[in-house]
Amino acid sequence: MPKMIPEPFRIKVVEPIKLVPRPEREKLLVEVGYNPFLIRSEHIYIDLLTDSGTSAMSDRQWAGIMEGDEAYAGCRNFFHLDETIRDIFGFNYFVPTHQGRAAEKILFSIALRAGQYVTNNMHFDTTQANIEAVGGRPVNLVIDEGLDPTSRHPFKGNLDLDKLTSFIEEVGAENIPLGMITVTNNSGGGQPVSMENIRGLKDVLAGYDIPFFIDACRFAENAHFIKQREPGYADKTILEIANEMFSYADGCTMSAKKDGLVNIGGFLAMNDEELYQSACNQLILWEGFPTYGGLAGRDLEAIARGLREALDESYLAYRVGQIEYLVGRLLEAQVPVVEPPGGHAVYLDVRRFLPHVLQSQFPAQALAAQLYLEGGVRGVEMGSVMFAHRDSETGRMVYPDLELVRLAIPRRVYTQTHLDYVAETIIELYQRRDRIQGMEIVYEAPFLRHFTARFKPVS
Ligand code: F0G
Question: pTM for the full model?
């Protein structure tokens, strides 16, 4: 038997892609101020900007699209999704939202007051920004191994429970209206969180009466890692593992654009009835009636079907196998990457890739731009552009521990040959890394600057 695992699907619809010639790529990069976010998708060859909303839907999901019930209130797809969320996540109530950040906005607008803290292993950028938008303070308490790209700890997404207890004691439980955990830890290399850690987190938070919410975007990938790596879980199904993960929580935010295998959608789920009522009020203001949120009936149906497909073990083995494969090819060529391979993306460790570029000169941005130039491949900067901030007390810039370029793999979209091409592009860049220079910012927005910032090479 061959050892490789081929894609567990065959391809029924194709979308042509093309590589624009290098001189044109060079011109385009200058035009967009070296920010790959601003390049048109038609000019990208392999698009690894995100795994969010970029999945290929299955034939069953597309069939579900035709079964969309577009009634304003009480559409049947809502009840199908309700049943699915109950089965997998087990919460009493949920509201659909147009995507994950809308669920975050609603949650923080009703549960958080200015000056209060929200703890997490590592907040994703939209979570951080939505907390700050209501005057709250996001706090990251990932274990130290989670900030060391070379540590091979099996659950580098774990939250440090001692740090959490000290933090609660320091600021007072009354100033922490909720504690969170992000599975998998996207900002820290797509690394999983163990069941033991989730259980321990619940115990600590419950001991102080602090509600516990899971940022559930990549829950199925996290459950797969628990099955593979945590003693006692090898014989459980992904559904059983997901059930247990969420049994410890009071609610979750979800971007169905990830493990819901859809192009748009999300939800906010919880057990508390009063919180649900408040969420409905905000939902009607910002998103829509509680049986559709910000979505069409057909979208709700695609999510209900996608959530189930994400639990399929052959799908998950292929999915996580793709990341392992790409990481393996890069390691063979000594390219520094975050290890062990995470769930949805390969992360280039730019501090080791470009040790000659200072963090103040945005090395990960420089590398992301070069990746496009070299092979028409689009990744995303996750370093000083996305996460550096000015300390409000000292006025000094604080740079993040991790300086990464993330290559997120869309679900069921690219084949192994595409990944080989990406590996070769990166290896070629690595061989000429000495010639890659840093960047300086010529324009930035007041928040979430990475989406629209413009750069030029340092002179
Ligand atoms: N939480 C996590 C962990 C995420 O990765 C994202 C989105 C969100 C929340 C927000 O969800 O995009 O549906 O509003 N991550 C995408 C990414 C954008 O590229 O990693 P959303």
Answer: 0.95
Q: What angle do CA 434, 440, 445 make, to 5 degrees?
A: 140
Q: What does the alpha-carbon distance between residue 398 and residue 413 come to, in Å, rounded to a whole number?
A: 37
Q: Is the pLDDT of residue 392 over 90?
A: no
Domains of the chain in sequence order: 22-51+312-457 (3.90.1150.10), 59-309 (3.40.640.10)
Q: Is the CB of 383 under 6 A from ligand 1?
A: no
Dihedral angle over CA of 254, 46, 313, 101, nearest 10: 0
**Measured from the CB, is residue 191 less than 6 Å from ligand 1?**
no
**pLDDT for residue 447:** 79
> Distance (Å, rounded) from C-alpha 68 to C-alpha 54?
21
Ligand 1 centroid distance, CA of 221 (Å): 15
Q: Looking at this protein, which amino acid is placed at residue 344?
A: H
Rounded Cα gap, residues 166 and 172, in angstroms: 10
* Cβ pair 154, 222 in contact under 8 A: no
Of the candidates 227, 253, 254, which has an alpha carbon nearest to the alpha carbon of residue 238? 227
Please tell me if the CB atom of residue 217 comes closer than 6 angstroms to any atom of ligand 1: yes
DSSP states along 228-243: HHSTT-TTS-HHHHHH
What per-residue confidence (pLDDT) applies to 387?
86
Place of tokens 């996207």: 186
Work out which ligand 1 atom sits closest to the CA atom of 99: 13
**What ligand 1 atom has the least distance to the C-alpha of 182?**
3
Q: Quick check: CB of 185 below 6 Å from ligand 1?
A: no
Query: How many whole angstroms from 48 Cα to the centroid of ligand 1?
Result: 14
The residue type of 82 is D
Over residues 306-360, the pLDDT tens digits come to 999 999 999 999 999 999 999 999 999 999 999 999 999 999 999 999 999 999 9
